[in-house]
Design a protein that fits this description.
Layout lengths: L2 E6 L1 E4 L4 E8 L7 E7 L6 E7 L5 E3 L7 E6 L4 E6 L8 E8 L25 E6 L1
């Protein structure tokens, strides 16, 4: 059974930092791509970053490039999102998820798991950045 348990997040001031963690179980973590997504009220879900646990390839959306860093620890089956220089527009619910292997081929992130695979998503965590 795939299980993704998120921690971290919360409230930060603009310019501050927060770190998100996503502990995974139930699959061969080192063989998969993991992604971080966010959804703000009234907006579509956006994949902000992904990482290949197999070869370390990463990709960032332009909106977070240079400010966010994705990393993973295969020994701990955990993926992280370090968020620096936070802006009020980063306010959203953030989700980790299994991703498609597009980044392995230099194609950016895969957009998340197939429809109907709700178990391939973390529970979500609120990030609020005040100005």
């Amino acid at each position: 059974e795939v299980k993704l348990v998120q921690s971290g997040g919360g409230l930060a001031q603009a310019g501050g930092s927060l770190r998100l963690s996503c502990a995974a179980s139930g699959f061969s973590f080192e063989e998969y791509v993991m992604g971080w997504f966010r959804q703000a009220p009234g907006k579509e879900r956006e994949e902000v970053s992904c990482i290949s646990n197999e070869d370390g390839s990463t990709y960032y959306a332009d909106s977070v490039k240079g400010r966010f860093t994705i990393s993973s620890d295969n020994a701990k089956n955990t993926v992280y999102l370090q968020m620096n220089s936070l802006k009020p527009e980063d306010t959203a619910v953030y989700y980790c998820a299994l991703d498609l292997p597009h980044v392995d081929y230099g194609l950016g992130c895969g957009g998340g798991p197939p429809e109907g695979r709700d178990d391939h998503w973390g529970q979500g965590t609120q990030v609020t950045v005040s100005s």
